[in-house]
Specification:
336 residues, Rossmann fold, 2 domains, 5-stranded parallel sheet, 5-stranded mixed sheet, globular
């Protein structure tokens, strides 16, 4: 099976660049409709989610991270040493009490289903009452409605500008604007190169794709990528049609329907989580090749099944790395 990797992970050297002014406190931001004010840079932070944790590490703030949770894949290799010194409160959702016990100056996440109106960790009001500011990545709420389902639905295609906005806001909160600007500049350059590589493939309009995250049970309808999430963004840059048209972030779609759409290739999520049997990439591949419906799809017959770190399918810096790898992998297929 061809494999997507992050072998070309960027190393952010934070090269000298134009100096940015220091943050003027008090700093007030609006985070997913919730106003947050900082009188000074937080002395510590709890990060609920791999995406925000790795951004904090990129900003050189590992020493500020008092605890992390909600890990899907191993940490990026260049941050393994720093992460080893940070307490992991939970592999999945931490309890509200475990977060409060760290007495953080801030709690951050990329998901409203973690911290939000029905947050499994807590609501914004619960953290306000505890006098702990909470901040959510703008990727989670701009152009996205999370009121009808846990994963929400996007009314517009994911835009990496929201990712960069999140990095910029975190840099301002912690008064490390120079570091934030360096990280963003490096990511934008890498994204531009990845998009150029993707567009250079010049794939026919008939090429289509499917991104499979997981399944609650292996034989029932899988969770697949909707039209406007990160995988939809990747496919738009590749000039590839998503066989799933739903605005939901991760709708369930029957394999019979998917088989009729007959995607040219399938990208399956790889993760360390084992909430469902289909979280295991080996289980996914075995199902695709043995099931009487899925085994008849062209992508399966022609071994056009790719793997991708699950976190890269969510709004994160890994999405940019994954676009690079996806373009390289598709170049090796006979899709013209």
């Amino acid at each position: 099976m061809p494999r997507l990797t992050t072998a070309m992970i960027a190393t952010f050297t934070l090269a000298p660049m134009a100096a940015f002014g220091a943050t003027e406190y008090p700093l007030t931001l609006t985070s997913c409709g919730h106003e947050v004010t900082f009188d000074k840079a937080p002395e510590s932070v709890v990060s609920v989610g791999q995406s925000t944790t790795e951004i904090l590490y990129m900003l050189g703030l590992a020493d500020k991270v008092a605890g992390t949770a909600l890990w899907i894949n191993p940490v990026l290799p260049e941050f393994a040493e720093a992460d080893a010194g940070v307490e992991r409160l939970a592999d999945n959702a931490p309890s509200f009490e475990s977060v409060l016990a760290k007495k953080p100056g801030l709690v951050v996440t990329a998901y409203e289903w973690m911290i939000g109106p029905q947050g499994v960790v807590g609501t914004r009001e619960m953290f306000d009452d505890a006098q702990i500011p909470s901040w959510i990545m703008p990727t989670e709420c701009v152009g996205k409605d999370n009121t009808q389902s846990m994963d929400g639905a996007r009314s517009v295609l994911f835009d990496t500008a929201l990712l960069y906005q999140g990095i910029e806001e975190l840099a301002a909160i912690f008064d490390v604007q120079d570091r934030g600007a360096a990280v963003i500049a490096d990511l934008k350059a890498r994204e531009a190169a990845a998009v150029e590589r993707a567009q250079a493939l010049d794939l026919p309009e008939t090429v289509s794709g499917l991104f499979w995250y997981s399944s609650a049970e292996i034989e029932i309808d899988p969770y697949v990528a909707g039209a406007n999430g990160v995988p939809g963004w990747m496919m738009s840059k590749l000039g590839v049609r998503n066989v799933v048209a739903s605005a939901e972030e991760w709708p369930t779609v029957g394999w019979e329907t998917i088989s009729k759409a007959n995607p040219s290739f399938i990208v399956a999520a790889e993760m360390n989580r084992r909430r469902f049997p289909a979280d295991d990439i080996a289980v996914k591949r075995d199902f695709l090749t043995s099931d009487p419906v899925t085994s008849e799809m062209g992508a399966v017959k022609n071994d056009r099944i790719l793997t991708m770190p699950a976190n890269a399918m969510d709004p994160s810096v890994r999405a940019i790395y994954a676009l690079e790898s996806l373009a390289d992998s598709l170049a090796g297929f006979d899709l013209k």
